Amino acid sequence: MKRKLSALITAFIISASMLTTACSGDGQSSSGSGSGGILPGTVPGTNAPMTEADKNVKITAGEWTNIEWTPYSHQYVTLQIPKGWTVEVTDLYQGGQTGSGTLVVVRNPSSTVCLSYMDFATIYSSLMKETTIESFFRDTVAGNSNGEIMNFTTTSKFQSESQKAFAQSNSAVLDAGVLTGDWKSKKLNMDMEGIYSGCVESSLGMYGMHTIVSPISMDVPKGTLANWNDVLTKIMSSIQWTSACTARYQAGSVISSGGSSGGDSSPIMEAWENRNKSEDIMSQKRSDATLGHERVQDTYTGDIYMANNGFYQQYSTSGGQRYVPITDDMYTQGYVGYLSY
């Protein structure tokens, strides 16, 4: 039994989006390496003339800004994904109450952007130091990564109104919440961040272990969560379990009260909207400084871009006035692409 429980935990750990060792790159194109090229004539949509400095600015659109959606179907689940992304569906169903779950991992094959979602699931963890969802991700997921996930740190915690109501109505719920966290990928030598959610229950506990229901992971390179949040929550909201999937759990009477007929991104979205923005601003500024980046705003369109340090000085010295450094409050917004000069 202990080997079976250990296998269940290992299956989740290896498949979960936090272990993005199969991905490559940092989710960010090199500034100026795309197809943006030189902008001709006047600024599109305005009568503003292009200066010589503007003509020398190269724009590379972020991959999150021009997504074509396509349906994905599996025996157990259907969802919408960006074209070209991959989906892994892992059946962890064991029958009865020995652990169950259908794990869906969606990832961009060219980056470390991943979404992991499992419903109708029970995972027994003996490594949790506390009966909290934070402890599950910190102690069990990160703790079982063989050192790949380093320095997992919670940056904020949140509980949506729906999660509060759910916890109050069910005495078996020990914790239900959302958190944001930072960590480092040892293999990729890259700083990462993400949103993590789930529920800790005692109703199906065995041998003093805890039950984790419907764990969710959203993982992206540090500093890009604002760019990818809408894309990842749209994927999650589109998830629908098929009748073939739900029938097994209904027949085995193992559907937890935390289960659902499909994805629910509302707690994630609520957590994102209610995050500590002042801390987020400081975190983004530190990340930019570490990575050698600066952010500027297009004063004609309002769009925000990422550039390498020194871009604005070189651009403005050459007479450019269209792009200016952003203000602190803009650090909580996503950027649409990259600029180089």
Characterization of this structure:
The chain is of the alpha+beta class and 341 residues long. Helix content is 26%, strand content 32%. The chain is built from nine helices and 15 strands. It has helices spanning 2-15, 52-55, 133-141, 161-169, 225-238, 243-252, 266-273, 277-291, 311-317; strands at 58-61, 69-73, 77-82, 86-91, 100-107, 114-125, 149-158, 173-185, 190-201, 210-221, 240-241, 293-298, 304-308, 323-325, 337-340. Strands 4-5-6-10-9-8-7 form a seven-stranded antiparallel beta sheet, sandwiched between helices. The longest helix has 15 residues, at 277-291. It is elongated and about 70 Å long. The model is unreliable at 1-17, 19-40 and 252-260 (pLDDT under 50).
